[in-house]
Amino acid sequence: xxxxxxxxxxxxxxxxxxxxxxxxxxxxxxxxxxxxxxxxxxxxxxxxxxxxxxxxxxxxxxxxxxxxxxxxxxxxxxxxxxxxxxxxxxxxxxxxxxxxxxxxxxxxxxxxxxxxxxxxxxxxxxxxxxxxxxxxxxxxxxxxxxxxxxxxxxxxxxxxxxxxxxxxxxxxxxxxxxxxxxxxxxxxxxxxxxxxxxxxxxxxxxxxxxxxxxxxxxxxxxxxxxxxxxxxxxxxxxxxxxxx
Amino acid sequence: xxxxxxxxxxxxxxxxxxxxxxxxxxxxxxxxxxxxxxxxxxxxxxxxxxxxxxxxxxxxxxxxxxxxxxxxxxxxxxxxxxxxxxxxxxxxxxxxxxxxxxxxxxxxxxxxxxxxxxxxxxxxxxxxxxxxxxxxxxxxxxxxxxxxxxxxxxxxxxxxxxxxxxxxxxxxxxxxxxxxxxxxxxxxxxxxxxxxxxxxxxxxxxxxxxxxxxxxxxxxxxxxxxxxxxxxxxxxxxxxxxxxxxxxxxxxxxxxxxxxxxxxxxxxxxxxxxxxxxxxxxxxxxxxxxxxxxxxxxxxxxxxxxxxxxxxxxxxxxxxxxxxxxxxxxxxxxxxxxxxxxxxxxxxxxxxxxxxxxxxxxxxxxxxxxxxxxxxxxxxxxxxxxxxxxxxxxxxxxxxxxxxxxxxxxxxxxxxxxxxxxxxxxxxxxxxxxxxxxxxx
Amino acid sequence: xxxxxxxxxxxxxxxxxxxxxxxxxxxxxxxxxxxxxxxxxxxxxxxxxxxxxxxxxxxxxxxxxxxxxxxxxxxxxxxxxxxxxxxxxxxxxxxxxxxxxxxxxxxxxxxxxxxxxxxxxxxxxxxxxxxxxxxxxxxxxxxxxxxxxxxxxxxxxxxxxxxxxxxxxxxxxxxxxxxxxxxxxxxxxxxxxxxxxxxxxxxxxxxxxxxxxxxxxxxxxxxxxxxxxxxxxxxxxxxxxxxxxxxxxxxxxxxxxxxxxxxxxxxxxxxxxxxxxxxxxxxxxxxxxxxxxxxxxxxxxxxxxxxxxxxxx
Lengths: 244, 441, 313
Ligand SMILES: Nc1ncnc2c1ncn2[C@@H]1O[C@H](COP(=O)(O)OP(=O)(O)OP(=O)(O)O)[C@@H](O)[C@H]1O
Ligand SMILES: [Mg+2]
Prior knowledge:
The complex is a heterotrimer.
Chain A: H1 2-7, E1 10-21, E2 24-35, E3 39-44, H2 50-57, E4 65-70, E5 73-74, H3 80-84, E6 88-91, H4 103-110, H5 117-130, H6 132-136, H7 147-159, E7 165-169, H8 177-192, E8 196-201, H9 204-210, E9 213-218, E10 221-227, H10 228-233, H11 235-241
Parallel strand pairs in A: 3-8, 3-9, 6-7, 7-8
Antiparallel strand pairs in A: 1-2, 1-4, 4-5, 9-10
Helix pairs in contact in A: 4-7
Chain B: H1 7-11, H2 15-19, H3 21-31, E1 33-34, E2 37-38, H4 39-42, H5 46-57, H6 59-66, H7 77-103, H8 112-127, E3 129-131, E4 137-139, H9 145-167, H10 172-192, E5 202-203, E6 209-212, E7 215-218, H11 226-248, H12 250-260, H13 262-267, H14 272-298, E8 300-301, H15 308-321, H16 326-353, H17 355-358, H18 372-390, H19 399-405, H20 419-427
Antiparallel strand pairs in B: 1-2, 3-4, 5-8, 6-7
Helix pairs in contact in B: 6-7, 7-11, 7-14, 7-15, 7-16, 8-9, 8-10, 8-14, 9-14, 11-12, 12-14, 15-16, 15-18
Chain C: H1 8-40, H2 47-64, H3 73-103, H4 112-133, E1 138-139, E2 148-151, E3 154-157, H5 158-180, H6 182-192, H7 194-199, H8 204-229, E4 232-233, H9 237-252, H10 257-277, H11 281-299
Antiparallel strand pairs in C: 1-4, 2-3
Helix pairs in contact in C: 1-5, 1-8, 1-9, 1-10, 2-3, 2-4, 2-8, 2-9, 3-8, 5-6, 5-8, 6-8, 9-10, 9-11, 10-11
The structure holds adenosine-5'-triphosphate and magnesium ion.
């Protein structure tokens, strides 16, 4: 019992977040909690506000109301570069690798806040161990790599920041089924190394099969919140996201 | 912003607003009744346009009437009318540039080039004189002033298309530099290429006398500019009507589309280059017409009258008045000319003739030698910078453009990573009081 | 900057030497356009005036030090370094301040807005200089001794050598800065994708300020070099020079640092040749530069060294 309580130590909390783009109210009173050691996924159709949720967490858009709390500290008052120094990192939607830099340079950018070159070199080797594919392409200009390779690079680059919480925005977007499987296998491996994971996905089936808990977002509002197992059985989810 | 305004928004409010001065004036105008209508009804919307339109229509009569009670050494009606005509020429330029900048969203920094082309066209065409490669006079068949107007519009428009065709594919900021260079080069070419004989200047015959059923009308009478004034006014009205037609046409909608989202517009089948060329060519043609009026009015033209400063002045006019807004750019042009011609020189004169300042022991004595004309462009630069930062929508905003300038409806990539700025802007975008904004003609 | 040679080939070589020297100045100014454009996609219209302010301030400092003739030896080295430092500090600070006050508030605005603001700033800078030091040209204290290496009927002035050598050194330093330092990496990342860079922990505002600082410093040094080669101060020198340097940056491929360097030298040479060999050359050489600008933009907008800037319309 005590052990279980400890496992539920809160890592990230969004409390009553309201975010706007000009006049449009994109996130409406959103409350989300991610506990240490979990994989939590946020499901939602196109334009539901998933990416906006990530942007709000990372200070790329500012919420008009509400709080973002990471390990007891407020993030919504900080700038992006200060936020990620707290130990939370985002692999953004669409990979966003630095396309004119090599794979290695991209990984080095991921460790921008660190200065120890030996640490960075070690971490690069760890990433290469996780994604052997990247190691082969060490010197390649990343813009010339395939989409799947770029996705691995984006995740690897995020890991270079040594995060406690890794946020992933649609890591499976545009990947073949085999690659999707690889990505999710990697995500579980990363969790085993002690990294908490908050995942945005449209591929509800894969996400729920790999996550502990999930939230369902519809037009900016959280309409469901449950364990992944229950969500997989939920009728609304089945109808909307699992094709029946 | 549809939700309740946050405390943050209130904190960011304009100090003038929080003092409530504007609100008090607004309330007064809203609550005071005259003939069953609130005063604010009389000072908003089309009624303001009608008021100023009447002033413009009867300006010569009003000026003549003013001689009954104003000192003619300062308020000589004919001189004031001349100022009004020159101002009108700038109104034409502002309306023309507004097609390019305001409608199509293309920054043209060399608009003066088309002004030059118009001025020289009327000079050559109506005098029937050009010079050959050896600077010798060559007579060509002379055209009338009336024929010169469409000719100048045609030539300027053609030059606009010629300049635009290779460059309009480029992104907006490259275009700005190319047009800037063009504006610099045209006067140099006129000066150095013998055909134009620019270094010595050129005489332009005055506007003609016309026989009408109501008698002779002398458009070129230097002692009474009324006829030419009405001609200028008529052309401005035509240009305004043309602008309105254009804006409401399918081309106008295509311009809005490319301005808002070039990528999406081209995806939706808008032929970008052709549509931009259209704006460029039409804007240039109007600049050419302005040039014709300028040529006839100043009667002696030379290359050095046409500087970068002219291009920028016209740009400032439209930024000041409201980019894309027809009443805005008209007001902007009039206002800037007014500041330029009257305010700045009046202050200079006052400083230089003030007896108290003339006393060397006066701590402000140094102001005596202060010639505001040299600071004119400093002031203009400040106006441009402050307007674009603090009130980018101008004095009389164009409704649609106002939204764009606030960043609503922009592609996500265009929104910067800096969220703070976004908040500041939202804070200042409280709905305007009823007195503000004359509406979108 | 006169062509004193007498033989045809001598005239040609002398013209080339002059072109290379001015080309170094253009290259330094072009780098400022390219670095800033690369990072914020803004043509810093006021950049030419930032350059001009270095010539203005160093002029006033030299006059207040009563320098009017050539100095020699260590005094020369000291004075040259002092002027370079002053020019760099003036233009660097000015450029950073401009970004902070005029461009940053408009970073989210439509593209036209910061461009228009830049024009406003350019006007302001130019007219303050005109108010302060007047509209007519002022001769710049030419403290660098005349003389040079004589090769046949061609003379390579020492000042030409100094300018070109120091420019090359600066360029090397800039390359190291951008390629290998943390700040350089932050600049490159921000140029490619500011949002992603912020997500790596890059302070975007600081990085942009730094880019303006670097551009300003280079323009400041260029101002001192230019004044020693063409020792006349004019409040509006930045306008024309800015246009030329911008052409150089476009020629090399805007956003491309090596390109700006090459473009600067190339434009310097072309302009010198046009000035010398065209009738009415000193006026028409500007038209030639402009024609190059239009041609490059029309035919190969990515520049000669072509690094296609991904278009973020
Ligand atoms: N920068 C922006 N300006 C205005 N509206 C925006 C902006 N970014 C997103 N939106 C709008 O906000 C809503 C939510 O967008 P968001 O990107 O968060 O959706 P999403 O759930 O991530 O969708 P997808 O699955 O397609 O990535 C959409 O309607 C979108 O059009
Ligand atoms: Mg998304």
